[in-house]
Amino acid sequence: MSRLELRHVRKAFGGLDVLADISLSVGVGEFVSILGPSGAGKSTLFQLLTGAEHGEGEMLFDGAPLDDHGRHFAFMPQRDALMPWRRILDNTTLGLEVQGIRRKAARARVAPLFAEFGLAGFERHFPAQLSGGMRQRAALLRTVVQERDMLLLDEPFGALDALTRTAMQRWLEQMWRHHRWTALLITHDVREAVFLSDRIYVLSARPARIVREIKVPLPRPRSLGGDAARQASALEAEILDIILNPNPSKGHDHD
Amino acid sequence: MISVGLLLLAWELYATYSGIKPTILPAPSRVFEQAMLNREALVDNAIPTIRATLLGFACSLSAAFALSMLVDFFQPLRRALFPVFIVSQTLPLVAIAPLVVLWFGFGLAPKIILVALVTFFPMLVALVEGYEATEAEIGQMLRAMGAGRWRIFMLARLPSALPYFFAGLRISITYAVVGAIFAEYAGAAKGLGIYMLNAKNNFRPDLVLAAVGVSAALTLVLFGSTVLLQRLAMPWERAGKEPVGMGSRR
């Protein structure tokens, strides 16, 4: 059954349509991506989910209407949003502290996860002392320890250099196989979407609508070589074609 | 330090060899000599100045902090209040200082008011702009975590304002000393300002300059302590300048 379901969600800012008609669903333990060009309103969708903005249409969580506070979601923003003045350990406990858990208890809950996230030994460091990849891992750790029902990842690797990004995608895929988080990822990186997702929703340019839903049939663990890689490349090419040459007979032109 | 030394040296040589009278331009050595001879009077007059500076600054800091929070929570206040404060900054100290003394007497009160007047607005602006400098994504993330406005203020906006706060502090603390001296100049029983005025009226530029030296030293000490305070309050600033790679662990 689907954990999150959106039916005909729309959003306009002052007469400007941003989201035209979004219907999608995310199943339990499923990794779903929303892929679309920059400025298509992908982040607006997350604002609706976290309750920062309100739109039209139905948003259901486990079959019930989603409450405004979006308490079901742990949100990871585009840049790592680590607080420079907090040590890494205290950055990762932030969500727990906001939930009202005492600092000591929160630390005890987070500390054992540092090794798995490749951050062991850096608990007492400040964010500025860490590399981009480590900061992103710390940000993900801060997100997952909140133990919400679902992860919302807003272009989490967009600010990283290409090599670090690839390394982080492989790492995230591996982490996901262990934990099977229900996750919704926003990205404009076709490769990233194919590599990480079970399903991909392809978004049109603004006003955003879903132009295609694509199942990614590739076996896990995802590999970068062999047959699976060829299949992945073919899928990437197909998706790029959908995004860059929108079929005028099928979709609508909004230029 | 070297530039200050060279400047003093040039001054010393000029005052000694140009034949200018010491009652017009005394050499630094003479100023220093006279300062030592009159050190009791100088210290005696420096104490009220220090007191006025610190008390006035403390008042202005508390007021600026309280109002900055109010403005942060109720944005319309900003538009209502800022014009008033900007006008307050355009008031010439020469005109306002004697008036404040006239209204509040020769005691401590007018000095505190004047120090507060010159330092309040820079501190208020520093704090308000500091809150605004909070990374938007941190705010968005905290809201998604379920934090309310107060929580976001304490967790994100207040710490984000720290660098701005200290920048404002460094500027204001120098204004504060000048403000206190000016207030005393306009009328006081004791203080570096009135001491300078009396020394000038007695044709003792050496003592005027000695008092200037004391006030400069005072400003430097206050400035230095704000720098020190910033280092203590923001340890991550220095930590960030020495990044550690993947390998090195402490």
Keywords:
heterodimer; A: 255 residues; alpha/beta; Rossmann fold; 8 helices; 33% helix; globular; disordered C terminus; B: 250 residues; mainly alpha; MetI-like fold; 12 helices; 0% strand
| Poorly predicted tracts of residues of chain A | 250-255
Average pLDDT of chain B: 88
Sheet having the most strands of chain A? 10 strands, mixed
Largest sheet of chain B: none
Q: Helix coverage percent of residues of chain A?
A: 25-40%
Name given to the CATH architecture of chain B: Orthogonal Bundle
Name the overall outline of chain B. Answer: elongated
For the secondary structure, the number of strands of chain A is 10
Regarding CATH, which class of chain B?
A: Mainly Alpha
DSSP E strands of chain B, number: 0
> SSE order of chain B in H/E notation?
HHHHHHHHHHHH
CATH superfamily of chain B: MetI-like
Query: How much strand of chain A?
Result: 25-35%
> What order do the helices and strands of chain A follow?
EEEHEEEHHHHEHEHEEH
CATH architecture of the largest domain in chain A: 3-Layer(aba) Sandwich
Kindly describe this structure:
- The complex is a heterodimer of chains A (255) and B (250).
- Chain A has two domains: 26-72 and 149-255, Rossmann fold (3-Layer(aba) Sandwich), CATH 3.40.50.300; 83-148, no CATH class.
- In chain A, 33% of the residues lie in helices and 25% in strands.
- Chain A contains eight helices and ten strands.
- In chain A, strands 5-4-1-2-10-9-3-8-7-6 form a ten-stranded mixed beta sheet, sandwiched between helices.
- The longest helix of chain A has 19 residues, at 226-244.
- By secondary structure, chain B is an all-alpha fold.
- Chain B has a single domain (21-233), classed as MetI-like (MetI-like fold), CATH 1.10.3720.
- Helix content of chain B is 82%, strand content 0%.
- Chain B has twelve helices and no strands.
- In chain B, α3 (39-73) packs across α6, α6 runs antiparallel to α9 (162-185) and α10 packs antiparallel against α11.
- The two termini of chain B are 36 Å apart.
